[in-house]
Amino acid sequence: MTTTHSIPVVDDDHFTAEVLEAERPVLVDFTAAWCPPCRMMKPVLEELAAERDDLAIVQVDVEDSTITAARYGVLSMPTFILFRGGAPVTQLVGARPKRRLERELDAVL
């Protein structure tokens, strides 16, 4: 049985503190409630959050946090951006299987 982990939601006001100033790398899931592929990715991200302590995972709702979404050019959901040391190091667009997401993250971590 796989343990899941709740993914915290970060808004425009807390993005700098929670993501850009984080000690460890942060995978940001830019998502929207109306997006079926985003809902499909939620259990995958919860599993990853439970399994990996080298990485924080947060969600940004593009409807509620338009400033952050615009700042990083998010036009499609889901968009995943991995931040390390306050800077984006990779951007992935679209739903994907867990193993593929893990490989893509491991390649830049």
TrEMBL record:
One of its GO terms (molecular function) is protein-disulfide reductase activity. Disulfide bonds join 35-38. It comes from the Bacteria. The record marks 36-37 as: Contributes to redox potential value. Keywords: Disulfide bond, Electron transport, Redox-active center, Transport. The active site is at residues 35, 38. SUPFAM superfamilies: Thioredoxin-like (SSF52833). Residues 1-109 form the Thioredoxin domain. InterPro entries: Thioredoxin, Thioredoxin-like_sf, Thioredoxin_CS, Thioredoxin_domain. GO terms for biological process: cell redox homeostasis. The keyword Electron transport applies. GO terms for cellular component: cytosol. NCBIfam families: thioredoxin. Belongs to the thioredoxin family. This is Thioredoxin. The gene is trxA_1.
